[in-house]
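Hi X.,

You mentioned you wanted examples for the new student's onboarding notes, showing what a folding record looks like when two proteins sit in one file. Here is a clean example. The first protein comes first, with its sequence line followed by its structure tokens.
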Amino acid sequence: MEHIFHLKENGTTVKTEILAGLTTFMTMAYIIALNPNLLTGFQTGTPLWNGVFLATCIASAIGTVCMAFLANKPFVMAPGMGLNSFFAVVAGNVAAMLNTDYTSAFQAVLCIILVEGIVFLLLSVFNIRDKIVHAIPLGVRLGIGPAIGLMLMNIGVGSNVGVYAEGNGYTDPFYVMRDFFGAMTPSVIKDHMGAEYSTMVLTVITMFVGLFVIILLAKKGVKAAVLVGMLASSVIYWAGEAIFLHVNPFASLQGASFVPPFHDMAATTLFKFDFTDFFRIGWFTAITLVITFCMIDMFDTIGTLVGTASRAGMTDKDGNMPNMKEALTSDAIGTVAGACCGTSTVTTFVESASGVEAGGRTGLTALTTAVMFLACIFIAPIAAIIPAAATSSALIYVGILMLQGLKNVDFNDLDQIVPVFIMLIAMPISGSIGHGIGLAMISYTIIKVFSGKAKDVSVLTYVIAALFIVKFFAVV
């Protein structure tokens, strides 16, 4: 282990790395069920759902193993949130455009992901993606971590803990911060939600108990604070379900199948590239979609790597992370593997920050998480019972810590703080790391140009800003 991952050099141990890997996995285990739900329209149990489920586990493991051994970094990969929803929308539009079934359209869109992955692999191998990282101004790079922190907190108190209730016909979820704490009085939200109000109360209590358990353990120097806090909050939630809601928290395990449906994957997603329908989409549309996927994925990945590495002290004085090329190459391999297995773009997950905060500093953290993803091929029903409220505790805590990076931003320099504060708002609201960086790059460039400092902006920075302007306003 020492020879492969250089644990002593990075100030860590095998125990710490394994605990960090488990922590990361628990914060992102939701993806193994949510990704196939989003990509198949919640057609649980169908051959396509089963195929995407296995593709999610396998592709995540492949990309993460590459990150472990090529870059020796504690970052984990999985099908990116936002990108999977966009994939599903595109697949639905392609099905309507070509008057075909969703599975065929799905296989046509997989071709787009394959092309994107190959493009990224070439850009990474030839250091072009690395140059793009360096083209991001230092001030913007310093602000990426805090912006991601706000995004994590927003996810933690928002979309991660939505409760579907009878009050709106179980169509749109009620959220903790917006609906529970935003209500005039408890009776108002109770009347609006109906019977599921008790579930919301249990969710809120669980989330905050878990958060404060993590904080108290962290103050005592417990490295496994995040993992222990998540386990504690899970137990509280399960007990609450059984005692107060009279629900068996482990009911989903009864009759659950632990046999991987490889035959469904082979029939629906594994190397199922429908190039015939892909070419029927039209060249302009296909190229536009490839570029769109590329831009979102590229800056989501760059933002996650730079922001998380900065928080962990893995960057130099200029904000650059060692082995960035290898990390980006691993990400590109993950995307190609995802396309071949049958899922949307595989990218570096922001939840990797939870493992880093638990002490993860090397590829052993990533390898541990990769093993857990592979194990989920057989134990997915067990991983699926981890309550969302428990993962929210970790997301909020890590988000708070990442905000500390703001102290490195020069608040006296408008060239820095304007782009940074735009990112701080844009990332949590848009839900996209890439879009937040894009808006920051545009604002940075405009400020420099109109304040007479156009020569301070590199050519590549101009290109990136221009591409984002085109993406936001011209790509249809």
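Then the second protein repeats the pattern, sequence line and then tokens:
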Amino acid sequence: MLMESLAGYAPEMWAGTLKRHGFTSIDADVLKAPEPGNPGALMVRARTRT
């Protein structure tokens, strides 16, 4: 995972929140913006147990 944050929240924070709510197989990353200085995009994918 990248250590960058989006709006003050790191991908690890989002992964921890999802885990506490029962999600598994969590993948959270910040994708770099194509232009320097612009914010990236936070991409999160998680599954629940079925």
